[in-house]
Design a protein that fits this description.
Elements: H1 8-13, H2 27-31, H3 38-45, H4 68-81, H5 92-101, H6 106-116, H7 135-144, H8 152-167, H9 171-188, H10 198-221, H11 240-245, H12 264-287, H13 292-311, H14 321-329, H15 333-351, H16 353-360, H17 364-389, H18 399-417, H19 420-441, H20 446-463, H21 473-480, E1 501-505, E2 511-515, H22 531-542, H23 548-564, H24 571-591, E3 609-610
Antiparallel strand pairs: 1-2, 2-3
Helix pairs in contact: 4-5, 4-6, 6-7, 6-8, 8-9, 9-10, 10-12, 12-13, 12-15, 13-15, 14-15, 15-17, 16-17, 17-18, 18-19, 18-20, 22-23, 23-24
Length: 614
């Protein structure tokens, strides 16, 4: 018997049945939200994900999918570390079930694996850099994309491709893919279109709100108008526990509460509306002349909006250790952390301008708001630290890097202008943040841009500490254009100087060698009780960097410590050894027609004093 080459609908209308990808509905049925049996015919013919292929090795560069067990493992990694944190596109139980049955369009699987392969510990990926593992899958996903397929699947694929683009630092491609997804959702009237069951209806709702949230930060990041207009008649997402226990087979028999306050995703939607207004205000204040009265009223109103959101949360959703443990036990710990990362980040964004104003001239109002900014930044750091301590709560998606960089600049403000006690705490946070950023950098290429942006901020502080925190157009770009490199604020950084190395004594008269790396951290000191501790830190940090200058400096420190040991008093000899190395660096810099300096992301030792002996 000859296999059917068209779905029943297209056969009846006697028209060509175009299918964009194996396992997906045809174009005609997708555009009209009809039940298409073409995808069933395609899948029954044979899925490209074999049920068993024990020896199959994942080769993304050849555009092959792994065997089914590994494929499911990678999809679950995506659901654990990306989905609901970056976007909400699927019903987890249904997605896993569809993959097991071979009913998931390949294009979706390629997009998912492009984001999740970096997290895998599978032996087939052992020889591939985590940041490179998804590129073959991403390329295949792009090749399979058919923009004539006006469907939910295409929306999901475009959101995946947008996420892939942004984690690679390609903001232009990101906004193009997201724009396509938004337009298709509007064409389909996604939240109101027919769905065969409650699960798929809720997926439509969650995808719609995902696009609304993405549109806020994506459009702002490329300075383009937003596409999605909020519609008050669309229900917010339902409670996650209810959603995840539902099945498609239940149809519409499941009763769902109209009160959506207990949904983490719904709370993200409400917060995102405040972010939209914060972004608009910061941009408007930096690009136009606003009266002080207008700025005062706007900040007060937005501050009250954030406070109201927090007060209206159910008690079980407050940011407490017990609530974090509770959500972790339900498999929702990472989503809980993500919600509060948003809240604390939006707060530091709103109050950031007052860091500069508080230093320039004290008033009770500016000081209060500056402290609010610092409080939000501290809480942001602390919830990330706690998330690493509670199983199932660690957040590893790329946007964590951006919000942590912003929070780190607030810690730098404390280093520069805080009292002794707060400086000690801020320095400790900077070191922890550096470790987290380094870990994220090993997963996401866009973290390179985050660190470059931190370097630009570092250079701005070096050029003029007095104006570094001023909320001007440059600072707004620094805060919101997270995927784009940013130019220097105050020109080129000054070159390395040999005068910044010498011998000093501490309060007890104990001599030690110091190396002052240029920048806002130069006035601070890291103390290491023994050279062995510093040697371990240098060795660990050095292996994560590629800067020629940094490598040379670390090598000189390492050689000095290994040569003279912890009991040595030959300070002058060590000093001359270090100076000789730095002279070589200066000579090499002259050959290259520019001075090279230590990477600004060397927060662990790039602000300190080198202590030798006791």
């Amino acid at each position: 018997m000859r296999l059917a080459k068209a779905c029943s609908v297209c056969r009846e209308r006697r028209r060509k049945c175009d299918i964009p990808a194996p396992g997906s509905s045809c174009v005609y049925c997708s555009a009209r939200r009809l039940d298409c049996n073409r995808k069933d015919l395609s899948v029954s013919k044979g899925s490209s994900i074999p049920e068993e292929a024990p020896g199959m090795v994942c080769l993304p560069e050849k555009y092959t999918l792994p065997n089914q067990p590994l494929c499911i493992e990678l999809v679950e990694l995506y659901l654990d570390y990306v989905h609901d944190k970056f976007h909400s596109l699927f019903h987890r139980p249904s997605l896993i079930d569809d993959i097991r049955r071979g009913a998931t369009p390949e294009i979706l699987i390629y997009g998912i694996l492009a984001l999740s392969a970096r997290f895998s510990n599978h032996s087939s990926f052992a020889e591939t850099d985590p940041r490179e593992r998804g590129k073959g899958y991403a390329k295949k996903c792009e090749q399979l994309l058919n923009l004539n397929d006006v469907s939910l699947t295409t929306i999901q694929v475009c959101v995946l491709l947008g996420a892939i683009a942004i984690v690679d630092g390609n903001a232009a491609s990101e906004t193009i893919y997201y724009s396509i997804a938004c337009r298709i959702a509007q064409l389909l009237d996604l939240p109101n279109c027919h769905a065969p069951n409650r699960v798929e209806q809720e997926v439509n709702t969650r995808v719609w709100w995902t696009l609304c949230m993405i549109d806020v930060w994506s459009s702002t990041g490329v300075r383009l108008p937003r596409l999605m207009i909020p519609q008050p008649n669309i229900p917010l997402p339902m409670n996650e526990a209810t959603f995840l226990t539902m099945t498609r087979a239940q149809g519409f028999t499941v009763l769902v509460s109209k009160d959506r306050a207990s949904s983490l995703l719904a709370q993200m939607v409400l917060l995102n509306r405040i972010l939209s207004e914060i972004n608009d205000f910061n941009i408007k204040a930096a690009t136009t002349t606003l009266t002080e009265e207008y700025k005062t009223k706007t900040v007060a109103a937005l501050s009250e909006d954030l406070n109201t959101w927090l007060k209206n949360l159910p008690v079980h959703m407050h940011d407490t250790p017990s609530n974090l443990q509770s959500y972790a036990s339900q498999g929702q710990g990472q989503l809980f952390v993500t919600l509060y990362l948003g809240y604390y980040h939006y707060g530091q964004m709103l109050f950031y301008r007052f860091l500069h104003e508080d230093v320039r001239g004290y008033t009770p109002r500016t000081h209060f708001y500056a402290q609010q900014c610092k409080e939000h930044a501290v809480r942001l750091c602390e919830i990330i630290y706690r998330s690493e301590e509670v199983p199932g709560c660690d957040v590893l998606y790329s946007m964590v890097g951006h919000v942590l960089v912003i929070a780190s600049t607030v810690q730098i403000h404390t280093l520069l202008f805080g009292d002794e006690e707060s400086v000690v705490r801020a320095r400790a946070r900077l070191e922890k943040n550096f470790v987290i950023l380094t870990k994220l950098r090993a997963l996401w290429p866009t973290l390179d841009i985050c660190m470059e942006r931190l370097q630009a901020f570092h250079r701005a502080c070096r050029s003029s500490v007095d104006t570094s925190f001023c909320m001007d157009a440059w600072m707004v770009r620094f805060l919101v254009e997270f995927a784009n490199p940013i130019s220097d604020k105050h020109g080129a950084e000054r070159p390395w100087a040999l005068e910044e190395i010498g011998i000093c004594g501490d309060e007890s008269g104990q001599p030690y060698i110091y190396i002052v790396f240029p920048g806002p951290w130069a006035v601070q000191a890291l103390s290491f009780r023994t050279p062995d501790i510093l040697l371990d830190k240098i060795t660990w940090t050095k292996e994560t960097r590629v800067s020629w200058t940094t490598t040379k400096v670390y090598a000189s420190l390492e050689n000095a410590l290994k040569t003279f040991g912890s009991s040595s008093r030959q300070y002058q000899t060590i000093l001359e050894m270090l100076k000789e190395c730095l002279r070589d660096i200066e000579k090499e810099s002259e050959k290259q027609s520019k001075a090279q300096v230590v990477d600004a992301d060397m927060l662990s030792i790039a602000m300190g004093f080198l202590e030798i002996g006791k």
